[in-house]
Amino acid sequence: MEYINAFWVGGLICALTQILMEKTKMLPGRIMVLLVCSGAVLGAVGIYQPFMEYAQAGASVPLLGFGNTLWKGVKEAVDENGLLGVFMGGFKSSAVGICAALVFGYLASLIFEPKMKD
User: Per-residue pLDDT for 75 more than 80?
Assistant: First the structure.
């Protein structure tokens, strides 16, 4: 059942994002920022953690989950270091994910032939 919940929740998030891309004039970068900020706000309000416990990877893998991870890192760093934690927490909590994206993106560019859009 965990796989089914992750599948339908992750699919719903992706479908709603696709509808947002198709039906509005928002650029993809702005939509990505909207998703990350929404995840951070939902985490701050306390809604995202129970949602993530229900959907697991279906909620933690999309950009909403990344925003929630940033929020958790900032919150922990502020508790430990005060105001300086606002600047440290997001980097500390998301470093592994960002590093993996860079490494795998680089490896993919070595395997496949990247092209610039015309």
Answer: yes
Q: How many domains does the chain have?
A: 1
Residue 69: alpha-carbon gap to chain centroid: 7
Q: Give the domain range for residue 96.
A: 2-111
Integer distance in angstroms from the first to the last C-alpha of the chain? 44
Q: What is the pLDDT of residues 43-53, one digit of tens each?
A: 999 999 898 88
Length of the chain: 118
pTM for the model: 0.77
Query: Rounded to an integer, what distance in angstroms lies between the CA atom of residue 68 and that of residue 97?
Result: 13
Rounded Cα distance, 18 and 84, in Å: 37
> 3-class DSSP state for residue 62?
coil
Nearest to 48 by CA among 65, 32, 35: 65
Tell me, what amino acid is at 4? I
Please tell me what DSSP assigns to residue 83.
G
Domain for residue 117, yes or no? no
Question: Is 116 a member of any domain?
Answer: no
What stretch of H or E contains 112?
none
